[in-house]
Amino acid sequence: MTIDTGPAAWRQTSNQNRMIKFQNGGGGDNPVKLAFFGSSAFRVTAPSGMTVMIDPWRNLPTGKWDWYFHDFPLTAVDIGVSTHAHFDHDALHLLEASVLLDRLIGTYEFDDVKITGIADKHAIDPTHATYDFHKINSYFGGQKLTPPDNSRSWDNCLIKIETGGMRILHWGDNRHNPPEDIWERIGPVDILLMPVDDSQHVMGNPMVAEVVNRVVPKVVVPHHYYTWNVVQRQSTLLPVEQWLGTQPVVRRLDSAETSYTRNTLPTDQTIDYFGDHVGFDVDAWHKANGLQTGP
């Protein structure tokens, strides 16, 4: 065992004073904010101001296959959540957070935030994928993918956040066809965070449509796609433009954060697309990791 073994929170100079304040309750009447941090990472800000980060990412620890130019920037939030034990979803150690919920199964509730984790399985059907990730998996370790005897990293926990009178579901990399009891546990959803890219890496577009048609959210937010200055081409991820072109209502957001209230959710199902906007200073991130950008 070395000094670098295990959690690193003991080195952080921050503290849980914010959570002590939230502990007194009261919530707030502010809108719910949703910010995109690239890949599958989102920060949800509750009306009280409490922040929840879902699925911060890092590069594959073996160093054999970098997806990102650098690891996720150290980010302060109140609660960190991971949907599953894959490198592009599990970098909770890069959060300065008071509470970490790694692969949550069950319910965590605090002040005006309720987080429910629903245990299911990772998508493994490559029917529509540009690249055969079964072959890639075999090359980079050969873990068992097929349930029920899959390796733990091929489990997935659907994460549902309830705050501000709305229900936000992060699909993670879940399969598109979970058993009926999973759909019952999911229940009504207002905002669905769904993995979509034109390589159809996690699931094919018809599978995405199956999920969306079953959940029937007011808003669908794509993630897990290629962003030019954060994700490297060797990730095999692609942009999401082709899929967006098949959707009837698309809002192309002009920043990395948007707001929602129960009363202002769209009447017709709408795609909210963050594009290449991410919630951190990308140029500073590159510079801090030794990569100079611009002239």
Structure write-up:
With 295 residues, the chain is an alpha/beta fold. 14% of the residues lie in helices and 25% in strands. It is built from 6 helices and 16 strands. The strands form 3 sheets. An 8-stranded mixed β-sheet has the order 8-9-10-11-12-13-16-14, covered by helices on one side. Strands 7-5-3-2-1-15 form a 6-stranded mixed β-sheet, with no helix packed on it. The protein is globular. The relative contact order is 0.15. The mean pLDDT is 93.
Core attributes:
295 residues, eight-stranded mixed sheet, globular, alpha/beta, six-stranded mixed sheet
Quick structural gist:
The protein is an alpha/beta fold and 295 residues long.
User: What is the residue-averaged pLDDT?
Assistant: 93
The first-to-last residue Cα distance is 44 Å
Question: Biggest sheet: strands side by side, in what order?
Answer: 8-9-10-11-12-13-16-14
Largest sheet: 8 strands, mixed
Total count of strands: 16
Radius of gyration: 18 Å
Strand composition percent: 25-35%
Write the topology of this structure.
Elements: H1 17-22, E1 32-36, E2 42-45, E3 51-54, E4 75-76, E5 79-82, E6 95-96, E7 99-102, E8 106-110, E9 113-121, H2 133-139, E10 155-163, E11 166-170, H3 180-186, E12 191-195, H4 205-215, E13 219-223, H5 241-244, E14 250-252, E15 257-260, E16 270-273, H6 282-288
Parallel strand pairs: 3-5, 4-6, 5-7, 11-12, 12-13, 13-16, 14-16
Antiparallel strand pairs: 1-2, 1-15, 2-3, 8-9, 9-10, 10-11
